[in-house]
């Protein structure tokens, strides 16, 4: 049964907003005293909170579906609906939050950090809030919008100062148990450690955390053994401690070959952009199990070669605790040096400037999609999509209110610019959305013109004819009338002559 989970997918559904209320106040001698429908309450948000007491994502692995409360509907007598309760989900420190596409949303590296991953829906306005001087008694209210629904991925990256890496059964779990109060599982078979273990070490005045990562073997980057799955817990470490087994009984193994294989596998692990590669971080070597006579002899044999490669080497025994004190002091020096460097970097770090949204930013955009039945005009934007969700299409007055809001937003002008004509298919929102046949709003005395609201082609100065053009047009009309009269006169003369000839033939 799983006891440690460091990656999980959550299926979230935030609370929906409550609907607004349609109500009319009734008093004695005043049966219709005005609208008094209250607003609906907002839906509850889903919030992730970094908590020090959490160490695993196991609870979310067992219960991945989470939802927050819906907002209450509005009521008469100007009573607003209740607001849905926010759902706070505690996660371990070091949790990286990503969306379903893999985009990083937040990195919760400090206790108390919060992020709203699923905002709740907005409550609808009641008819009392919609009343104006021109609309004194609205017969409709706005509906509540739906809360966010989707998946997010939580990935735990242990926040530790030092990481212990090495082959399975090299004594990493025994070492972390010897230098800290951690109590990992210890046994004499490979892959005893199946998940990272954390321990707090105090060395002099310094205090730091150590992470025990499951053992690596040759080919881990190709998926052998436990693979590189758990090396994400090494990403945040300041230093690496290579724990080498000097008393292994496996043929063909020695501390030098083990170190080279581990270095190869660490080099194959890609760290996130902006972080120092694993092999470029400070590294120490601990030759473990020197309490065994053969192990001490092998440690003395390989120590000069390791020091020639530039490593600080410590001969230790996790069982007899030999050499642990100098090792912890050396690790403390590396940790303190890294903390000092990070503190100086934090002082010189540029300030983050949050700028408000520009006032001239468009609230929507129109995408023209071609099809066999003609062009389809899709309207995408937070405002029109939210307004459509708030509209009760069974109420004609509510639909008219939506049309007014869309017109004030300038959608009709944009549709004309995009080439839409009366009867064109318009969709609001992605996917299926809300589909309707567009009928442009026409002003009075312009029943035969299809121009954007506020414009009139008859008043367009660029198309206004000049005096000479009007004179020429007048002459052309007069000439046409003269030619038409002459043609009509010729037809009359021809008919009169024809009737005269017919009369003379009849007399004969």
UniProtKB/TrEMBL annotation:
Domain Obg: start-end pairs: 2-159
Segments forming domain OBG-type G: 160-336
Pfam family, one: MMR_HSR1
Keywords, comma-separated and alphabetical: Cytoplasm, GTP-binding, Hydrolase, Magnesium, Metal-binding, Nucleotide-binding
KW GTP-binding (keyword) present: yes
Region (Disordered): 60-86, 452-482
Cofactor(s) this protein requires: Mg(2+)
TM helices/strands, residue ranges: none
Function: An essential GTPase which binds GTP, GDP and possibly (p)ppGpp with moderate affinity, with high nucleotide exchange rates and a fairly low GTP hydrolysis rate. Plays a role in control of the cell cycle, stress response, ribosome biogenesis and in those bacteria that undergo differentiation, in morphogenesis control.
Protein name from the UniProt record: GTPase Obg
Species per Swiss-Prot/TrEMBL record: Microcella humidisoli
